[in-house]
Every structure is written in structure tokens, then in C-alpha cells.
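Q: How would the C-alpha cells look for this protein?
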Amino acid sequence: MFPRPNIFGITDWYDLNLIFATIICALFVYYYLRYKTPYTFSLHMVLPWGFFMTFVGLVGARLLNVIELYTLNKPTELSYGFSDYLLYYGGYAFYGGMILNVLVLLLLNQFIRSPKFPVILDVLAMACCLAYALGRIGCQLSGDGCFGVATNLPWGMYYPYGPVPTLLPVHPTPIYELLANLVLFGLLLKINQNKKFVGQTLYTYLMGAAVLRFLIEFIRRNPEVYLGLTMSQLIAIILFCIGGIAYWLKHSQAVRPKVALQT
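A: Here is the predicted structure in C-alpha cell form.
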């Protein structure tokens, strides 16, 4: 949406915003774990972990984007090879980063086996929601193609700069997602303060984020993959089912002891 910046050698709005979002979310995780949970964590450990998980997220996001690119196109129709897109020319798909981060955390838990892990996952779910919201600021500033389809609504915006410019007013979907995910973030904060079982925040986030992404895809520019749905919508359905089933199972386990005591 704006011309490229040049701040300390960084010439991309998204990269600048990514650094900003990483620091904010790492500090949030540190603060919440230290003051809102019975566990203590040192700041010098939280920031490196924040940047490590950001790196893992970027790898997963790029990988899913390239997989989607090859799903929608024949290799002969593409300008570059798989490794070129993976290293240089590919974009980012948020779900890829989220999924790879979860897999890495689950793998680490197999070695660490800490009772802190489920509590940390709830906090990381809130941080993930906040990171997604802040990330949309970068999309809005850079005009990287995350905007929606053309619209005649009075708040339609132009994105004349960036890799995918548009000269027609379109839905500013980055702003929609920013506001919607900030609301979800506030809801998760409230749920986490009064949760009835560990994991309630995480599973609520999976369902809430899935619903938001599923709906926004109807006015975004992403191509359809299967049954008239985009790749993000198909993944959102899977994540919603996983979150819903896990929520129901954990909630049943939390209620069952109380019922047994009453009887």
C-alpha cells in the first residue's frame, strides 16, 4: 500500500513488521508466564525462543505456500523450480507456520516431558492470535496481495504499490482480520483467566481462528482448490474439527469427576 521503506537496510514493510510482532509477542509470553502462571521463566530465554519459533513459522509458512503453488499449477507453468520458490520467490501461508510450530512443540515435549507444557500451549495460542493480528499490519502496509476482491463499499482501499498492485478499490481484508483477531485475542485472555481445564484456550483459539479465516476467504483473492473452497478454508475445517473434538473430550473429562462426586 505504501512505497518500500529503507530502515536499517530493511526494505520491506512485512519484514519490519515481523520483527516488531516477534518482539511484542515474545514479551507478552514472558509477561504472562511470569505473572499469570505459577511458573517462572527468564527473559533471556524467552526472546531467543521467540525468534526461533518465528523462524520455524516462516519455514512452515513458505513450505505450505509453495505446496499450494504446485497444487494449483503444473510445474511446466511455473517460472522457477521448487527449491527456487522455497528459498527465494515463494510467499507465506500462515497455517503452514502454525502447523509446523505445533509439530515442533509436540516433538520437543516428547523429550522434555514437562507439566508446564500444556500451560505454555495455552499462552502460545494467545500469542499466536496476537502475532496473526500484528502480521496483518505488515500485509496492509506492503500491499502484498492479501487484500480482498473489488468492492464499491465506501471503505474500499487502493493498493498501488507492492508485488500485486491494484488500481480498483478492494476489501481491505488485512484490516478486517486485524480487528477480528484482536477481538478473538481479548476473548482468549478472558477465557484463560477463568478456564475450567488446561487446553481450553488453545482449543478455543483453533476453532475461533478457523471460523474467522474460513469466512474471510470468501472475499479474498485466493484461488479455489477443491469443492469451491480455498486451501486455507480446507485447512480451517480440519483445524476446527480438531479443536472441537479436543475441546469436547477435555471438557467431558473435567466435568466427569464433579458429576461423580455429586452422585
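Strands lie at 157-159, 166-170, 224-226, 229-230.

The chain is about 65% helix and 5% strand.

Upvote if useful.
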